[in-house]
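Appendix C reproduces, verbatim, an entry submitted by the partner laboratory led by Prof. M.T., so that reviewers can inspect both the input and the predicted structure.
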Amino acid sequence: MELLIIAIFLCAVMLIIYMFREAFRDEVKIQLLKFSNFPKEIGEFNIFFISDIHRRRISDSIVEQIKGKADIIVIGGDLTEKGVPLERVANNLKKLIHIAPVFFVWGNNDYEVATHQLRDVFNLLGVNELLNKIYYINKNDKKMALIGLDDLTQELPPLDLLMDQVDEEAFKILICHNPETIHSVPNIDKISLVLSGHTHGGQIRIFGIGPYRKGGIRKVHGTILLTSNGYGTTLLPLRLGAQAETHLLMIKNENSDQPIS
């Protein structure tokens, strides 16, 4: 009996160590996304997407993996949470802004901090806040529209009016913290790509079962939805079956023969 208890205890310790390591992985998933309506003139456009940083410090390993490879960086909400020093948030952003222009949408936990102080950091460092806003990127006379929406915990504006303002000819990317937001967006099938986080992929999945679907890419209402497992954790710095991740998205036309750089 004593040996059994010792064995169970050792297994439990090993499991916790494994879950801790999964929570602090520095993985950049390289994902190629092809669209029939992506302008060939643009060639290839690369987005580094990171969500749900929470209490984590962005590692130098992440920076090295994406340096020189990302055209823009998108933070999909929950950059911070209650109790995280503002200096840590600023240091995370400083690492990112040296790589490429940074765009940010709000998550539910971001509203736990003094939002005016967070905005002061954004203004100081040149982070683009997409709060129910459309931002156009022009390349080779073609447009891409970044549409950033507030978190579902906040009052969203009339989305039909916002979506009517989007240039019909632009390649449209919607960024929202909570993937459930897409069910509130009219004519979502006109959006080519949605970037979201929030769920942490369930964070701890027992025999593959968790409170949320595991992160990944799927088609919803005619649009491609990426839901990330996220970079940080909530409550406990532990993960099981939904390891921490970030994404380097390489977007191009489905008929393009241009090789991936």
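The chain is about 20% helix and 25% strand. Additional entries are available on request from the coordinating office.
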